């Protein structure tokens, strides 16, 4: 199976956001990965609903929205209305995770769970069957361009085993520091979705870089 490639728009040129989205439309990217940060769950603040809606007007591919925010349950319906096709919330930010996953699904969006690097995949045992996707952070969330955390390989394999044991259909997404050097090994450990930010947008030829990632199997 070919991987699902989800370039992270956070690494794009915001001054030319429409042209960046149009470039992704022309590429072999499968999804657009949208990082929402509130300055509380993570140190940085990114864009909100107006920018998301602007991206949606030009995007021809599904929007994979990653909420790095506290109390995400307060905004699920708004993110869906702004164009989110998949909404991923952090395990660490949800007091009632099962309820929040059901809330996401009730909007018609796919429901994802994100785990910080220090959070064990074993904590998902009771909810993995309710998730459409699990996003493993392979860097500490909040900043782009960080170095890939090597423990992600072991964690990906452990998550794949848990998914099989629980008869879950959840996809495994890897977010942070993904590039041509580690993509193959991540797929071999069980990853399905690769999020790539600066590796794509800093490349001399982003469309070819996306194609190169897509060709890995």
Question: What kind of sheet is the major sheet?
Answer: 8 strands, parallel
Strand content: 15-25%
The CATH class: Alpha Beta
- State the distance separating the first and last CA atoms: 6 Å
List SSEs in N-to-C order: EHEHEHEHEEHEHEHH
Walk me through the topology.
Blueprint: E1 4-7, H1 17-26, E2 32-37, H2 49-58, E3 63-68, H3 76-81, E4 86-90, H4 97-106, E5 110-115, E6 133-137, H5 152-165, E7 171-175, H6 183-189, E8 193-196, H7 198-201, H8 206-214
How would you characterize the overall build of this protein?
There is one protein chain. This protein has helices at 17-26, 49-58, 76-81, 97-106, 152-165, 183-189, 198-201, 206-214, and strands spanning 4-7, 32-37, 63-68, 86-90, 110-115, 133-137, 171-175, 193-196. The chain has 217 residues and is of the alpha/beta class. The chain has a single domain (4-214), classed as Aldolase class I (TIM Barrel), CATH 3.20.20. It has an eight-stranded parallel beta sheet. It is globular, with a radius of gyration of 16 Å. The N and C termini lie close together (6 Å). Catalyzes the reversible epimerization of D-ribulose 5-phosphate to D-xylulose 5-phosphate. A divalent metal cation binds at residues 33, 35, 66, 175. Belongs to the ribulose-phosphate 3-epimerase family. It catalyses: D-ribulose 5-phosphate = D-xylulose 5-phosphate.
């Amino acid at each position: 199976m070919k991987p699902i490639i989800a370039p992270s728009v956070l690494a794009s040129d915001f001054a030319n956001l429409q042209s960046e989205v149009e470039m992704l439309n022309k590429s072999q990217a499968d999804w657009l990965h949208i990082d929402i940060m509130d300055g509380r769950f993570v140190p940085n603040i990114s864009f909100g609903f107006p920018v998301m809606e602007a991206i949606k007007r030009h995007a021809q591919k599904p929007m994979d929205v990653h909420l790095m925010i506290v109390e995400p349950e307060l905004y699920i319906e708004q993110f869906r209305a702004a164009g989110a096709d998949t909404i991923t919330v952090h395990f660490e930010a949800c007091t009632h995770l099962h309820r929040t996953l059901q809330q996401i699904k009730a909007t018609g969006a796919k429901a994802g769970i994100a785990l910080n690097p220090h959070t064990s995949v074993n904590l998902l045992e009771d909810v993995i069957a309710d998730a459409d996707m699990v996003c493993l952070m392979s860097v500490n969330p909040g900043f782009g361009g960080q170095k890939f955390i090597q423990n992600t390989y072991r964690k990906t394999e452990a998550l794949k085993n848990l998914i099989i044991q629980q008869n879950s259909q959840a996809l495994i997404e890897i977010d942070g520091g993904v590039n041509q050097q580690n993509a193959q090994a991540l797929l071999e450990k069980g990853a399905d979705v690769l999020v790539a930010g600066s590796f794509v947008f800093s490349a001399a030829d982003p469309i070819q870089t996306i194609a190169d990632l897509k060709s890995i199997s």
